Amino acid sequence: MLTSVGISHRNAPIDVCESLTVGADDLPELMGAIIRCFGAGAALVTCNRFEVYLPGSHERDGVLEFLVEEAGADAGLASSFFEYRRDEDAVCHLYQVAAGIDSMVLGESEILRQVGDAFSLAVESGADNSLISRLFHSAIRVGRRARAETEIGHHALSISSIAAQQARALHPDINRETVLVVGAGDAGRHAAESLADHGVGRMLVANRTARRAEALAGDLGGEAVAFEQLPRALADSDVVIAASGSAEHLVSGQQVAEAMAGRNGRPLAIIDIGLPRDFDPAVRQVDGVAYSDLDDLQKVVEEHIRAREGEVGDVKAIVDAETQRFGEWWEQFQVVPTIAALTERAEVVRTRELQKSLRRMDLQPGQSEQLEAMTRALVKQLLHDPISTLRERGDTDVFVESVRSLYRLDEPGAPAEDA
Hints:
Layout: E1 2-8, H1 14-19, H2 27-38, E2 42-46, E3 49-55, H3 60-71, H4 75-81, E4 83-86, H5 87-99, H6 110-125, H7 130-149, H8 159-170, E5 178-182, H9 186-197, E6 202-206, H10 210-220, E7 223-225, H11 230-236, E8 239-242, H12 253-261, E9 268-272, E10 289-292, H13 294-308, H14 312-360, H15 367-392, H16 396-406
C-alpha cells in the first residue's frame, strides 16, 4: 500500500540531519526523480525533517539508494538513521506529524501548513495519485481535528517563536538592542514578527533576494540589509536569528571573529535555526559569542512538551481512529474494482452461454425471459459468498489477489469458452 522513509530530529542529531536535507530549490528535481522511479509520491521537507511517501511496497535498501543518490548523502549515515515504515505505520506517522505530536515543539502549527505544501508540490509536479491524495487530505484533516478537539495547539509555539523567546532570555532589554534576522522566508518572518511583538530597538533583515528582505523589513518597521553587507551587519547587531534555508553555511567562524573585533567587547547572541545551519558551528569558539542551534533549543522545547504532554493521549486517539479509517478505505478501494471486474466477467459468460442455448431451443412465448431471470439469479447466488468475503476481509495480499488470479481478471480479452 504505502512506503515511507525519512529522517528527523527524533532519530538523528543536527549534523546528520543537515547532511541529508534537500534545499527548496532542489525539491522540483527530487519530485521529478520520484515520478521516474516510483510513478508517484510526495516529499515532506522542513527545517528538521526529510521524509518521502511512496505508493506501493518498496524495499528499504532500494528507497535508501534512491535517496542517497538524490540527496547526495553519505550511504552509511542514511543506512544508520533513516527510518523505514510501511502501510498503516506510515499512515499513522504522517498523521502524528500533521497533528503536531512528532514535532520538536509539541503542538506547533507550522507543520500543518508544511504538510499541505508537500501535497501541493506533489500535485504541481504530477506526482500525486489516488493513494497520495487521500493520504495527505486525510492528514490535514487529522491535524485540524487535533487542534480543534484537544488543547495540543493551545498557545502553540514554533521553532521560530522559541528562537525569539531564547533571544529575549539572552537579552532581556531587547527593546534597546539591534536584532539581525538572516532569512526572510517563513521561519525568519515568524521569528521577526515574534520579536517585533515584544519590541525591538532596531531590526535588520538580510536575505539573498533583496526584494523579500525589503518586504519583511517594511512590514515590521525595520531596515533591509544587502546580503553582501552581512559581515558589517553582524558587527552592528546584538542578536542574530538565522533561518535562511540555505543549502550550506553562509557565515564562517572567521567572519564572525572579524565582526567581533570591531564590537569593543560587546557580546553577540546567534540563534541558528537553519538546517543546514547558516553559521559554521565553529563560531562557538569565538570569544564573546553565545551560539545556539536546534540541538541547543531542545532544552527549551522540552519545557513546552511537559506543559502539553497531557494532551498527547487525546491526539493519539484521534490519530488511531483516523488510521483505522484510512485502512478501511484502502481495503474498499482495492475491493470495489475487483468486485466490479468479477461481476462483469460473470455477466459476459452468462450472456454468451444463454444466447448460445437460446439459438438451439424452440421456446414458447415468455420462456426466454424466464431463462434470463433464472441465469441472473444463478450467477447472483454463485457470486454472493465470494463477494461477501471480499467486502468483509478484503486483504489485498490474500483475497483480492487470489480472486483476480483465479478468475484471470487482469488478463486482456473475454473469458475462455472452454472449461
